[in-house]
Amino acid sequence: MILDEELMNNLSYFLPKERIAQRPIEPRDSAKLLVVDRRKMSIKDYTVRDLPKFLEEGDLIILNNTKVIKARLYCTTDSFAKVEMLLIKKIDEKTGLFMVKPGKRLKVGKEIFVDNLKIGKVKDIDIHGRRVIEFYNEIDLLLEKFGNLPVPPYVRRFCKDFEEKYQTKFANVPGSVAAPTAGLHFTENLLKELKEKGVLIKFITLHVGPGTFKSISNRGEVLLEPEWVDISQEVCDSIKKAKMKNKVLVVGTTSMRTVESTNLMPYRGYIDTVILPGYNFKVADMFMTNFHFPKTSLLALTMAFGGIDLIKKAYAYAIENDYRFYSFGDAMLII
After folding, report:
1. 187-218 tens-digit pLDDT
2. Pathway it belongs to (predicted)?
3. What is the four-CA torsion angle of 244, 246, 252, 255, rounded to 10 degrees?
4. What does the alpha-carbon distance between residue 195 and residue 178 come to, in Å, rounded to a whole number?
5. Is the pTM of this model over 0.85?
6. Structural domain of residue 112, as residue ranges?
7. Cα 2 to the chain's mean position, in Å?
8. What are the C-alpha distances in Å from 250 to residues 3, 117, 258, 259?
9. Are 323 and 280 in contact (CB under 8 A)?
10. How many domains does the chain have?
11. Kind of pairing, strands 131-135 and 117-125?
12. Are 249 and 313 members of one domain?
């Protein structure tokens, strides 16, 4: 898919480096929440703990319960050269597809070591230069023992409690290489308050892949790596019921892509859906999301829901008013 020049220009903006959040604010629900009203064409400041004000009894929230795994391995070859590997997806229990760097050090047949332990070898190289690695033990066991949580490339000040900070409070299905960051804002107290108000909360699963870090190419080419999703019959039925009389709040681009891709039918499998301005949303009445990188499919999805001009105005306002951007940053609620 190739985006036209006008849309590419709309997806571009300049962000001062100091606006990139290096760690989440505490408590998490004290983060800023920029409320963007499509009907009034207005923008107003709140905090995430104000979210219940915008929901009524019977409304439904959709969250992604994926859990970030230790998907990054720091290894050496049999010639003691250092390599870094990031899991894209498991092919089977002992074989996986990996992004590697530097790739020239991992040719087919090369054996891989961690802490002087031989763990596997390169079985193949695909057309994109990614390596198919065959391990001598189960991937899950190796990653749990030797792996590291992938740090977003723009987080420069690594905090000691990163592994706790980079998981949502409801993360319980391992499989992602990046967190569904809009969900990071939900504290146990906020979830409790929403439930006490009669707001329903349901979970889908989308395992975020490394493509979440990719920008759209300068030529406007969009290519998303297929990502694993799971949406149950119960969730589909809850959405259909809520849509009859109430509102559905979808939290995060991963949740949005899941509910909009599956036609409210239960589904377990891969999706590579790209949502662009002009798309007719079928599920979401409200959308909560973080502030995204320029020239990304995530920002394109946000503009598709909120409108290009209004979202550009909201981003300019957020930059002007010291909002924090990206994974550990503040949030936007589009109503």
Report:
1. 999 999 999 999 999 999 999 998 766 667 66
2. tRNA modification; tRNA-queuosine biosynthesis
3. -30
4. 27
5. yes
6. 72-146
7. 22
8. 25, 44, 10, 9
9. no
10. 2
11. antiparallel
12. yes
